[in-house]
Amino acid sequence: MFIHPQYFVIALNMLMGWDATVFPRVDEFLPERWLRDRPMGNIHPYANIPFGAGPRMCVGRRVAEQEMYTLLTRVAQRFTVEYHHEDIELRVGLLAYPSRPLKFSFVSR
Question: Record's InterPro entries (predicted)?
Answer without folding.
Answer: CYP11_CYP27_families (IPR050479), Cyt_P450 (IPR001128), Cyt_P450_CS (IPR017972), Cyt_P450_E_grp-I (IPR002401), Cyt_P450_sf (IPR036396)
